[in-house]
Design a protein that fits this description.
Blueprint lengths: L1 E5 L9 H5 L5 E4 L6 H7 L5 E3 L13 E6 L2 E6 L9 H10 L3 E3 L7 E5 L2 E5 L13 E8 L2 E8 L1
Parallel strand pairs: 1-2, 2-3, 5-6, 6-8
Antiparallel strand pairs: 1-9, 4-5, 7-8, 9-10
């Protein structure tokens, strides 16, 4: 199963995302969506699970979601410090025991297994600014394991 992973759109969905996510079966949005219409547009590609970011207001998404896809439990939360999670999210991770934690906020791609859990930040996908590199990720889940590919916007 291929899963599109995106975060920090901040109200802008790059048209390239449609091609990059072609063929994905689900999309995870790690927060700082900007406008709910971004999720509606992503839903034209595949079903979406999204969480609120620290810049999202007036939307009905939750701060944390736990979903099972391709036999993998995935926790999605906007602000996660993989090496030192805040107490509240650390407790949630301990209770949920996910295979993958998807997060955003830092605007930096991150892909590392810590304590048997894959921590994945797809990077920043919003409007070009401040010479920030922009990216999304594809998480491929197979019986033999998981792989991550980053795609630049």
């Amino acid at each position: 199963m291929k899963i599109g992973v995106i975060s920090d759109t901040h109200g802008y969905l790059d048209p390239k995302v449609h091609d990059l996510f072609a063929g994905v079966e689900h999309i995870l949005h790690g927060g700082d969506i900007g406008f709910a219409s971004i999720i509606l547009e992503l839903e034209q590609i595949a079903p979406v699970t999204a969480v609120l970011g620290n810049n999202d207001y007036g939307m009905t998404f939750r701060e944390t979601e736990v979903i099972e896809l391709a036999g993998k439990k995935i926790l999605v939360h906007h602000i996660v410090h993989p090496q030192r999670p805040a107490e509240a999210i650390q407790g949630r991770i301990e209770r949920a025991k996910p295979d993958v934690v998807v997060f955003g906020h830092t605007h930096q791609p991150f892909n590392e297994v810590i304590g048997g859990c894959l921590f994945l930040n797809p990077g920043y996908a919003g409007k070009p600014r401040f010479k920030l590199e922009r990216s999304v990720a594809i998480l491929s889940c197979a019986p033999t394991g998981m792989t991550v590919e980053f795609a630049m916007l």
